[in-house]
Design brief:
By secondary structure, the chain is mainly beta. About 10% of the residues lie in helices and about 60% in strands. The chain is globular and about 55 Å long.
Amino acid sequence: MKTQTIQYSSAKTNVTLGGRIRLSLAATAVLLGCSAAYAGADNQPHDDKSADHAEAKHQTISFSGSGYIGYRSDSNVSVSELDTNSDAADGALQAEAQLKVSLMPTAKWENVLSVSQANTNYQTLSEFDLGLTTLSASTSYTFDVAKLGAHYYHASAKLDGRDFLTYQQYGLSAGKLLGQHIYLRLSSDIIDKQFENTPEGASIRDSEAVAVRSDLFYFFEGEDFFQIALKYQNEDAQDNVFDYIGKGVDLAYTYPIAMFNKPLKLKVGYQLDLRDYASEQDGGIGREDDRHVVEMSADYAIHNNVDIKLSTQYGDYASSVDGANYKETIAELGVNVHF
């Protein structure tokens, strides 16, 4: 069995945010300008009476929550953020809980706050046990030209009961319905990662990044829809060896049907991530990663508030670095209760 030493960093990054913030805001301005240009493509007349009715009917505040428990089978337990894999299979108990609050002062203005906790506890490889606490907040307003929003995401991860990673992401977005079938969403984000409890002498992985993403949804005549996303990320780590430029595409198709008079949602997806790391001239090693992930899932509502979830995922994480070059297959079955 191949087991690699898990190393991560507690040093705080000293990279200046100013340039990256300006780049992110400039990218967002371009995105918003594109959405404004697309507005002319939507020639449907607005129904003022329907809008007034929706305004009067909307719910000001609402609460929702969910609890999930499942069993996961993993062919190669790994931690992708650390380029670490065990080369060993194991089973794990997966538990998640989420609470969400939505506040809508008007029918066009929505604010959402959510908090969640997820835990993965392996039967044998307890050093890979993962606890993830997340907090997210977003606000959006639907103008005639587009739906504009701002969002923030904070995650704290524990590995084997010890602080592992603090992840923050914040940015702006713009969305627009084009005709009857197409919805376009553009976003720009700043990402900050800080690794904790680093062994002495280990490489410092703390980093900041600027990310840009575009999502296009196509809704068919039924309730099925197709999604394609293009993404770009420029990550600057405190140790130049981890600097990279990433490009990728996400594809997904969702098909809802009825089985025994109960809704069943089927989904298939594919993710491609290409990463070019810093060259030797820039203090890196010229590393290249090609990550391919295929996912399939089925979500069956056996009750209005109870779903059975079945999913499988295959990942081929090809890399010129041995520790980051591996394959992994995950299968999971669980029950989700929600209100």
